[in-house]
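Whiteboard transcription, Tuesday session. T.W. wrote the C-alpha cells on the left side:
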C-alpha cells in the first residue's frame, strides 16, 4: 500500500530547499511555519483566519490536551480535525518539553515521568507508550516521540543522559506506535507518521550521536530537532543545526521545534530546516509586540499615537489592509480585545509570508543573496519590545 506521506524536494539552493510534504490531510509546501494551537485553538484566531493568511499545517500539544479536555474526549468527538474544525494537516508535540519544565512537580525515571498537573495538582504519568496512545486518540497526521528535554546550556553529562534516554524511549515509542497502527484501525486518523527527535543540547558530539542513532533505528517519515531555543545563545543553536544538517537524510522533512523568531526561521532554512513552530507570534501579539521587516516593535509606544500607516507597509494581512497603527494602539490602550487579535493575526501572517518568500527565493536560486539582504534589513533598526 502506498504511504499517504511523501516528501519531495523540488529545488535546492545551498543547504536550503523547497519541497512538498504530503500528509493524509493535504499537502504542505516547505519551508513552512506552523501556527501553534496548543489547546486546539491558535489563540485569538479562527481556522478560517489561518486559511486566509496561507497557513497549511498547525500544531497542538498532547500534554495540555491530555489534561484538558482529555484526549479520549477529543477522540469521541472525532479527533482534533473535526473537534477544532481544521481540515488541514496537524502535528502534535508529545508534551516532553512541558513535562520537563515542571521543575519541582515531576520525577524522572527510566519508565517515564511522574508529575502533578499544573491545573489541579492531580498525579499524572507520561511514558513513551502512554504518549503514543494519547497522540493516537488526538488523531494528528504527524506525532512526535516522547523525549527527555533539558535546558539549552546544560552541561555535557546531563545532555548526554537526556539524549541517550530519548533514543531508548524512541524505540519504545516505535513499538507502541506500530502496534497501535496495526490494531487501532478506528482512530480518527488511521495512518499517522511518528517523528523522532534529535537531542544533545549544544554539544556537537551528542547531536551527531543522537542523529546517527535515530537514522539507524528506523525508516522515519521525517525528523524533529528539539532542545533548541531553550536558553542557549543563537550562535550555538545555529551551530547545532549545521551539525544535524550533515547527519540527517536529505529526502525527509526536518522540523525545528519551538523556533519562531523571524531571523531564526531564515537562518534555519539556510541550514536545511523545512518546518517550524512557535507560540511567539500570538504570545507577543497579546502583549503589543509586532513583527516588521526592520525588527520587532511595540504598538503601545507613544510614537504610534497619530500614525495613519499600517503595522507594516506592503503587508497583506487583514490587520494591515484595514487598520492604522494609531487605531490598533488605541485598542491596546483601551484594553479592547480586538487589538490582541489583530496583532496576533499580523504576526502569524508575517511568519507564514516570510517562509513563502524564502521558498520563492530557493525556487529562483537566489536564496543566499535574499537571506543576506533580508537579515541585514531586519537588523538595521533597533528592535523595541
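and on the right, the sequence the group agreed on:
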Amino acid at each position: 500500500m502506498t504511504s499517504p506521506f511523501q516528501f519531495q524536494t523540488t529545488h535546492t539552493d545551498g543547504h536550503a530547499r523547497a519541497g512538498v510534504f504530503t500528509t493524509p490531510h493535504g499537502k504542505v509546501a516547505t519551508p513552512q511555519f506552523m501556527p501553534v494551537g496548543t489547546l486546539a485553538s491558535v489563540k485569538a484566531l479562527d481556522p478560517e483566519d489561518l486559511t486566509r493568511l496561507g497557513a497549511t499545517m498547525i500544531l497542538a500539544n498532547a500534554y495540555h490536551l491530555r489534561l484538558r479536555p482529555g484526549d479520549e474526549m477529543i477522540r469521541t468527538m472525532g479527533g482534533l480535525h473535526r473537534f477544532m474544525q481544521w481540515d488541514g494537516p496537524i502535528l502534535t508535540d508529545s508534551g516532553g518539553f512541558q513535562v520537563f519544565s515542571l521543575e519541582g512537580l515531576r520525577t524522572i525515571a527510566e519508565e517515564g515521568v511522574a508529575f502533578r498537573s499544573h491545573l489541579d495538582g492531580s498525579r499524572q504519568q507520561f511514558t513513551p507508550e502512554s504518549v503514543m496512545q494519547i497522540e493516537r486518540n488526538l488523531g494528528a497526521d504527524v506525532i512526535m516521540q516522547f523525549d527527555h528535554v533539558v535546558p539549552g546550556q546544560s552541561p555535557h553529562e546531563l545532555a548526554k543522559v537526556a539524549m541517550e534516554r530519548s533514543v531508548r524511549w524512541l524505540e519504545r515509542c516505535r513499538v507502541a506506535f506500530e502496534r497501535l497502527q496495526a490494531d487501532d484501525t478506528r482512530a480518527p486518523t488511521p495512518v499517522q507518521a511518528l517523528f523522532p527527535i534529535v537531542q544533545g543540547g549544544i554539544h556537537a558530539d551528542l547531536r551527531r550521536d543522537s542523529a546517527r542513532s535515530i537514522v539507524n533505528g528506523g525508516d522515519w517519515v521525517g525528523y524533529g530537532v528539539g532542545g533548541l531555543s531553550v536558553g542557549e545563545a543563537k550562535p550555538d543553536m545555529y551551530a547545532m543545526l549545521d551539525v544535524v544538517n550533515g547527519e540527517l537524510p536529505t529526502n525527509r522533512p526536518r522540523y525545528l521545534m519551538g523556533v519562531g523568531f523571524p531571523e531564526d526561521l531564515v537562518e534555519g532554512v539556510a541550514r536545511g530546516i523545512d518546518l517550524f513552530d512557535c507560540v511567539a507570534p500570538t504570545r507577543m501579539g497579546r502583549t503589543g509586540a509586532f513583527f516588521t521587516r526592520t525588527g520587532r516593535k511595540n504598538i503601545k509606544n507613544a510614537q504610534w499615537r497619530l500614525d495613519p500607516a499600517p503595522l507594516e507597509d506592503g503587508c497583506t494581512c487583514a490587520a494591515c489592509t484595514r487598520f492604522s497603527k494609531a487605531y490598533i494602539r488605541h485598542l491596546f490602550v483601551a484594553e479592547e480585545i480586538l487589538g490582541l487579535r489583530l496583532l496576533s493575526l499580523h504576526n502569524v501572517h508575517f511568519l507564514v509570508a516570510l517562509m513563502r518568500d524564502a521558498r520563492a527565493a530557493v525556487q529562483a536560486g537566489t536564496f543566499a543573496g535574499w537571506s543576506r539582504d533580508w537579515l541585514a534589513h531586519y537588523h538595521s533598526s533597533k528592535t523595541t519590545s
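Someone added at the bottom: The longest helix spans residues 156-183.
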